[in-house]
Design goal:
With about 110 residues, the chain is α/β, with parallel strands linked by helices. The chain is built from four helices and six strands. The strands form two sheets. The chain has a four-stranded parallel beta sheet, covered by helices on one side.
Length: about 110
């Protein structure tokens, strides 16, 4: 499995993130060469990828759809299945914030704002 965050900006990992996830700002997801680059760099040999944003209501699902569309245009070996993280990072971090195997960089003060 591989995690990909569809964030608003480059520093969208503030306050914590899913361990091993890659932050890919949402404005870059309109650029097909950028999506191809993400696939080439991060998804080779993966069986699934989980895409999310803060709540996985708009940006995350939109980015997941674009990723799946780009993957479907490729031939060759098996492609990863694309999922959207239900509840987004907000739901994930509230449940797993103290699990350092799943969340890194967690800042309690950030989430109390």
């Amino acid at each position: 499995m591989f995690g990909m965050r569809c964030g608003l900006k480059i520093d969208d990992f503030a306050g914590g993130h899913i361990r091993g996830a890659v932050n890919a700002p949402s404005e870059e997801w309109c650029n097909e060469p950028h999506i191809s680059d993400l696939i080439d760099k991060h998804l080779d040999g993966k069986d699934m990828v989980v895409v999310h944003c803060m709540f996985s209501q708009q940006r995350g699902p939109r980015c997941a759809m674009r990723l799946a569309k780009q993957l479907n245009t490729r031939s060759g070996p098996a492609k990863p299945i694309v999922y959207v993280l239900s509840g987004g990072f907000n739901g994930f971090v509230r449940q797993y914030r103290h699990d350092h195997d799943l969340v890194e960089g967690f800042e309690d003060t950030y989430w109390k704002q």
